Amino acid sequence: MFVQIGRSRLHYRVYGTGEQVVLAFHGYGQDHSHFYNMSQALPHAKIVAFDLFFHGQSVLYKGNTPLQKEFLAQLISKFLEEEQVSRFSLMAFSMGGKFALAVLEAFPDKIDQVLLIAPDGISTSFWYNVATYPGWLQGLFKRTVIRPARFFKIINWLDSTRLVDSGLTKFAAWQMNSTQKRLRVYKSWTGFRTLTFDIRKIVRLLNSRQIKFTLFLGEYDQVISGKRLQVFARSIQNCQLILLKTGHTFLLHEVATYLRRHPGVF
């Protein structure tokens, strides 16, 4: 199914038939299907799993690029109207955190709960800034998409010298090991560059409305650092922070397992 404005369309799939409507946004390199296991863990939920733009079947028209928060809010508003959804909860993993935060900003009075899993958007990495920085650095990244040999030399050097955790270098290499993947990296990082947030505003929205907030982090996650996220979590009054003994890659699966064993969390 799709919600569409002009030539841009956001694809989604519904999992489950429960009463709790959950808008879910996956991580980089995934699609809506990664929330199937989550729906099995939450029989009381109706999970509406969206494909991020540049993933799955979602399409962001060139004229709507980079994605603006206002345009995303228009798409979600149209979805809520078409599906007659008055209240909902949010769930997001990794890059999908940017989408969830944008929806939270736009519809704070319609939201019951928020569950974020190692979310992007709260703290931004140096490499993200490099990729989206205007000028010659962005041009250098574009050339890397076409001619990645130098990139892989640097990755191999970082791995051999142990200057960067080996899990992180393997993750980076896997995300860049084909032209299609490199194009998706570039389109995602530049296409979502306007999805930035005033974290103090996010905290005020959550606290003023006493929205239940659950944050899952991976103890061995080298992609999304948990230190600043834990500081963020301590600022939220109605917050539950859960640390799982896993890395970034398997975190979504481990969260589904945890929720199946602890049905009262979400």
UniProtKB/TrEMBL annotation:
GO terms for molecular function: hydrolase activity. InterPro entries: AB_hydrolase_1, AB_hydrolase_fold, AB_hydrolase_sf. It comes from the Bacteria. SUPFAM superfamilies: alpha/beta-Hydrolases. This is Alpha/beta hydrolase. Residues 21-251 form the AB hydrolase-1 domain. It comes from Adhaeribacter radiodurans. The keyword Hydrolase applies. One of its GO terms (cellular component) is membrane. Keywords: Hydrolase.
